[in-house]
Amino acid sequence: MILLLLGGGPRFSNLEVAIYQAVKVDLDLPLAICLATIQIGVGLFIQIVTKGNGITPFAISKRFQSPIYACKSRLMKTLTVGGAWALIILLVGLPLLNVLISALPGFSHLDLWDLIRALLTSCLLGFKVAVTSLLLAFCATYISRHSRTFWVGRLVSVICTLPISLSTMVFGLAIMVSFPSSGLLFRDEMWGVVCVQTLSVLPLSFRILNESILKIDRAMYFTAESLGANKLQQLFFIEIPLMKRSIFLVAAMAFGISMGEVGAVLLFESEGNMTLPLSMFKLIGKYQFDQAQAIGIILILVMVFIFAMKEKWENLV
Q1: Which of 4, 222, 237, 246 could staple 212 via S-S, CB 3.0–4.6 A?
Q2: At what angle do helices 191-214 and 244-260 cross, to 10 degrees?
Q3: For the whole model, what pTM was predicted?
C-alpha cells in the first residue's frame, strides 16, 4: 500500500493498487477478481520456482556465518561499525527527526476524542490479530511437529507459507466475495480485517514458532513419557515454557503489523473502524501532512512501548 499512500496513480500503479481501485472506486468486482487471480498465479509460480531450486525463505547461507568473513583488523571493524551507524543515522535517524520536528505543530490541530478513539480501535484490532495469529500459528506448528505422517506436516507448512506471496487486498477480496452481505459480522465488528491481517502475518508467525519447537530435544519428550506425562502435560510443561520467547515475539510482531497495516482496513472501512493508519491515510489525502506526521509519531511511540514491555512480560510469565 506504499504506492497508494504516496499517491500512486495509473503511471505508478501495481496489482494491489489496481485491486483497491476496482473494488472501492470503480465498483468493478469481476475486474478485481481477475487481478487477484493474476496475483495468486504469480505468487504460486514464485513459490514453485523457489521451492524447486531449494531456496528457503528467511534462511541465511552458512557461508556468511563463517568466521572467515569476520573483520580481523581493528581498523576494518571500526570502519564497518562506523559505516553501519552512519547508514542507520542517514536512513532512519534523520528522517525520524525530520518527522518529529514537522509533527510538533500538528499535535495542536488533532481532535483529541477522534485520536483516542482511533488509538483504542487500533489497539483492539492489534490485540485480536495477535491472539488469533498466535493460536492459528501455534496449532499449525504443533500439528506439523507431531504429525505421524510426513505429508501432513509438509502440507501444513506449505499452507502456512503460501500467504507470504499474496497481498492483503487478495485476502480481503476473498472475504468480500465469500460473504457479500453488508450486515455480516465481518463488516460490523472488523472481523474481516482481523482475518485478513491474521493470514498476512501467518507465514512469519509459523516460521518463528516452528523453528522454536524444532529446537526442543526429542530426549525431553522421551523422558517425559517415561515419567507418565501425556501429550497435554508435555505441551504445558515442556513446549510452551521453552517456546515462551518466540510466543511473545509472535504476539508483539502481529500486534505491530496490525497497528501499521492500512490495506485491509480500507477495504472494510466504516465509521466505527477508524484506526491510526487510516487516519493518517485520510489526512495525507487532505494534504494535512503535519497532522499525519503527528499520528505517525504516536504510532512509533506505541510500538516502542509494546516491544519494550515485551521483555518484562516474558520475565513475569
Answers
A1: 246
A2: 150
A3: 0.77
Which of 1.10.15.40, 2.60.120.1440, 1.10.357.10, 1.10.3720.10 is the CATH number of 111-316? 1.10.3720.10
Contact 206, 140 (CB under 8 A): yes
Dihedral (CA of 94, 262, 258, 113) sign: positive
Length of the chain: 317
Backbone angles phi, psi at 58, to 5 degrees: 65, 10
The cell for 4 is: 497508494
Give the cell for residue 233: 502435560
Taking the C-alpha atoms of residue 260 and residue 206, their distance in angstroms, rounded to an integer, is: 20
The per-residue b/e assignment along 54-65, b for 16 or more CB within 10 angstroms, e otherwise, is: eeeeeeeeeeee
